[in-house]
Amino acid sequence: MKKILVVTPYPHDANSWWRCMGPLTYLAKQSKGEIQLQMANFTEGVSWATVSQVDLVFLHRPCRDVDLKVIQISHNLNIPTWVDYDDWLFGLPGWNPHKANYDSNQMQYMMAQCLASADLVSVSTNQLYQTYKTVNPNIVILPNAYRSDLFKYRSAILEDREPLVYWRGTNTHDGDLMSVRDGFINLKHKIDFLGGPCWMVLSGMDKSLYSVKPSLEVMSFNRYLYDIKPKVMVFPLVDCLFNRCKSNIAYIEALHAGAICVAPDMPEWQREGVITFTPHDSQAFVQAVNQAMAIPQGQHRQLVESAFESMKSSYDISVVNQLREQVVNHLTGDEFRKNPNSPFDQSVGLKALAHFQELKKTRG
Q1: Is the pLDDT of residue 44 over 80?
Q2: Measured in whole angstroms, how far is the alpha carbon of residue 188 from the centre of its chain?
Q3: How many whole angstroms separate alpha carbon 286 and alpha carbon 149?
């Protein structure tokens, strides 16, 4: 039996669904008792007494003092630590409302120290892999996990699509929407904004052509997307390092819903079922949306179903959790060796942080 201590400040959010509690609970259930999870509870502090009960510590997006404390205790107990990140958190765009929080000197140091001294780092994209491996070579790509086991309602043969475009997101994407504001204004198709669209974009649009729906819990959200039968999903992004590191969860959601994607011509989006456009180009954005909306129903169905099967071959939970199982076996195996970078050595984190700050200057 292998016990994993799960440390996360966000156990209930969408990122946990894709990269923390979602895949880990599936892993534990599929192991038939061989893997057990223990959620960290810091109401009474953290000590060796808690950490020493487990075989492995998993930290989801560590950024707090307590996260580093857990890594330090684990280091002393010779218990392996595994950290997971889904974003480039050392250079959030200026419009992101979380920028001030993540840009604080204390949090920047904490993340850099955790990244550099963890025994293994997992990330979602190749760009993140290339970026973070410069401070910790013990890094692997673990793709986001599509939970086909929970979406039994999805039909093998899609129904005809509604003439509907949708976008989903929060105010963390204000700058992305603004990058093609004129494109949204010139769209002649009905569009649903799910979550928190930028008011500066909405203010210029024809009110009869759009609606705004509130955010939903992740399971309800995926069911809602499927039920509205959208034809196209749009997901504009500013071309910067933060967005190039971003994973394509929106693409997975769109294919689940039966929609073709319209997304920027960036590496993470060059996939079957995606029509790309030049970032920041409103005219190219409109042309891509019109192209997608003009695809006949039968051709659209074939295109989406082929792309859906291709997506599952890389992202289905049954596939990606084989990689997670390999990570667990490696970290708890007899040949495991601790990272020589000590989490107590501040110079380790400061050196990593200096490297990231230089990268931020040169690449955004």
Answers
A1: no
A2: 31
A3: 36
